[in-house]
Sequence to fold (1095 residues):
Amino acid sequence: MRALIAKELREQRWLFLACLFTISLGYARSLYDLNAGQAWLHVFRRSFLMVTTIGGAGFMVVLGFRQTFDEVRRGSWNFLVHRPLALTHIFAAKVFAAAVLFSAAVLLPTVLLVAWYAVPGHVAGPFSWPMVGPAVVDLFAALPYYFAGVVMGLWQARYTVSRGALIVAPLLNSVFAHSVAPSLSAALVSSLLLTLAYAWLARGVFIQHAPRSTLVQSALAGTLATALAAMHLLATAMAPPPAYDQDAEPAEREKEQWFISREGDVRRAIVRHGTVQRVYREDGQLVESDLDGMAWVHDLEAPSAGIGISPSRNFGSDRPSYRHVLRHRRLAREGDDYRYEWYFDRDSGRLLAFDARSRRRAGSMGPDGWSPDGSGAGFSGPPLTDARSTDPWWLTRDGLFRIDWEGPGISRIALVGSPPYLDHALMIGDDGVQWHLVRSATHVDLFVGATPRVALPVDEAARGESIAVGRIEAENAYFIEYAHELVLFDAGGRVVRRRPLPTADVPNRAEPHVRPKTNAALFVPPIAVWATMFHERGHTTWRRRWQTRDGLLALAMALAVALATLIQSRRHERGLRVAMALFAGVIGPLGLVLPRLLPSSRGVACPHCSARREPTPQPCPQCGKLLPGHDRDETAVVEPEFLPDPSLG
Amino acid sequence: MALRVDIVAGSTTPIYRQVVDQIRLAVVTGDLEPGDPLPSVRALAAQLVVNPNTIAKAYGELSRSGEIVSQRGRGMFIGHAAPTPDASERRTRLASEAERLIQQALLLGASQAEVLALIRETWAGLEEAKKGPDDES
Amino acid sequence: MNDTPISAHGLTRAFYGHLAVSNVSFAVPRGQVFALLGRNGAGKTTTLRMLLGLLEPTAGEARLLGQTSRDLSPETRARIGFMAEGCALYDWMRVKECIAFQRAFYPRFDDETCRAVVDAFRLNERQRVGELSHGQRAGLNLAVVLATEPEVLILDDPAMGLDPVARRLLLEAMVHFSQRDHTTILYSTHLLADVERVADGIILLERGALRACCTVDTFRQRVRRYAIPFEGEPPSLPDEATIIAKKRFEQEMLVTVVTPAATPEGELPSVLALPDHEVEPLPISFEDAAIAYLGHRGEVRFVVERNDA
Fold:
């Protein structure tokens, strides 16, 4: 056993060194960046983890493949399996060697890097264990690749392509663990389960390299089926929408848009292809539509000289994933010349400052001010907008603050309305003064500098609407457009005029023209058609009618494919046959290749008439001849003393 | 006198027959005499690179006719019995040899008398050689 | 203790539904050397692999040292020496390392035997296995296999690609070890002259089926060749399967016949009882007999009759 492990280690040493070199190079590059002060390259950052995500998986699949394929290809397989060891032990020796190599080539560099990162003074940023989670997941997700490689090496594929199919499940798992898994434990459990399943499969294929049990065959069938289904669904996803083809919006359609003229009047414009065609006054009278006149039009939806709020995604509102390590969030910043790296710590609610030079914690900041020892009250929540440590303000539920990041110091500009519907927009005016537009549940507040200018009570129901602020040059006035109300006010903040805006009649909100792709069901996996039907249940009746038609077509397709598969798989075991037929029916025509991919064990071809028959002493049911070996005649020179004792056979 | 046996594999004569013939030849030509030891089965098999069972078969045939005798614990020795091929076999085998000799004679243009004289001469020579060592001992 | 350490019981194996080995049964008695003969693709390697449990039979069973091949225990496997076709060794190892690797698995590894074989094949211990000649490679494989003192030795075409000297060394080793340890040997080969030298018996496969399983002497006795001289019309022979080869020359027909087991030496087999023709027995070597047996059935003519038109 020890000799076998030593042999494995020696055989894979070049691969190991190549991997170690590549991974170390990747890490060294990251280390260099970290050392250069770019602390945003956390150990949990996606870009940083490319090394483990891709490097680890790649190394493992190549390692597993080489460990078996080389033995089979070079013929040393016979020498190997004739060792006086149980095959399980030979397999275990390979796995052990692989574990050692993985630990040394991938795990060790990662652990060293994390250890380095965790020591204070190395990186100007906080360290906490959840930050290592993604790296751990990547390492675990690399494990099934090894066993996939082992099986691929041993897989006596009639079609080389079916070797590649084995890697699809680990790939899907990687995608799941990386992007879909809601929690660390989900990602770990899925990786571990797949590793166990693949290890079991690999062991089965290894110890029965030539003889294939039904169990191993079924496992292979499952793997291949997963791969086929994944490929199929992927192809379907990339193709145009499966069953329904929404016609593109007719290009001729005209849109209606509202504008404010320089005079502060509301204008209705008809826009086609992004070009204003006609402009109407509110009373419906056509205004001279000369092109020069375009300059005075302000688009209410995207004011050119103003700021706008659309319902923003607040800090931390992303889809939950363990990869977003929310405990510490670095405040983005630009440039190199700064004293502190700032982080927002969710636990304490305080802003943490790390000295950019010594890379140690310098202190923290709360609503009450800067504290070098980190004590003091925290903010009552995370920042409400994407915060940057170059922006001199800070908005939380506690209010709007002005922050001096280098000082460091903090002062409250204003308390804002009650949570939770807070939005914020900032405009730097022509004179360099900051305009803050803050929306709460009850008010829209406009601050110019630190001075509150306008506070508009708003309807809560309209909180999903966008807000626009702009300046009307001609009158030296300003406007806020919000919830179909236009508020004009002067520089002093006095409201000059308020008027409701007519609700735009949107002509393009008509029912989209839906035309069913009549032949889609013939190419799309029936399961996808049915899934679409299920998903779109409850839409208009005529659409459902088409869906029913496609659903029936898909059903016919599924039955046809299942039947064809059943016929095609005559040579397979019955259980496997049924499973293949069912599966092929669900995934559609692509499933027809399944019986070809899986080796069949039943029956042999009669050498006389090529009919399929059982290898028994009975004559061929087709041509009545015996199989060779059973048709011994008087020309055979056989001495009974060299024949086996029949009682043993 | 050592026993020299040459084996030709792939000939029409089976190997055990070659061994038997050559031991007999060694006896009739006087290379081996009654009482001379023979190599063991294993030793001869190793020497000739032949399956030991083949040698054992050859020894078995020779010892059945008494041409060699086995002495327990000491090995095989040349016996006193003369080879006793039956008359018909003797005749067939000699006839084929004679045919080959005459073919050679015709090829070389020798007369019958010349050949017969040569046979007599060679015969006498072999008898002489067989007796020779006896006189010296 | 059973006295047939190697036995096959109706071994059958199909690849992708095509029979490679069909109903092959034989038993090799302890201490004997058996040669497995057959043309390329006759199923020799497949049979040996099934015997060693490296390949699952489609039907039938193989037994080695009394154990079913498909689940040989490590202890039993340690008593079986196997030289795979082309000598499956690790090319990157040095000769010394290869020996050490083998030694690690066998507590009974006999260094003296190993050294003796290594010296006989003049192997340099520092050389890499991949750089060895065919003969040296076979020698190394033989050394590491023989040093484990196997009770059963299975060699898959060990003489493949060997020069005459290496071939002779191989034979010497087989003869030596078969009698020293009463090793039961089964080896496949194409070298019929060598078979005659070292083998007790032969197992002959033809297109996956067992055609002969007997001693070398029995085989020579049963397969005989006769010459039938003729003038004008060639003799018409009965359409009997036992006439395995007919070769027609201008004035003579050479016929190879498998005689029934009871036919004594010198007696004409009944199929050749031709009233109008003289039938003359011809001596036949083992090699010729085997070739006639393995070759195509029926009449072979190299005289092509041309129509002078």
Q: What stands out?
A: Chains A and B do not touch (no CB pair under 8 Å). Residues 255-299 of chain A form one domain.
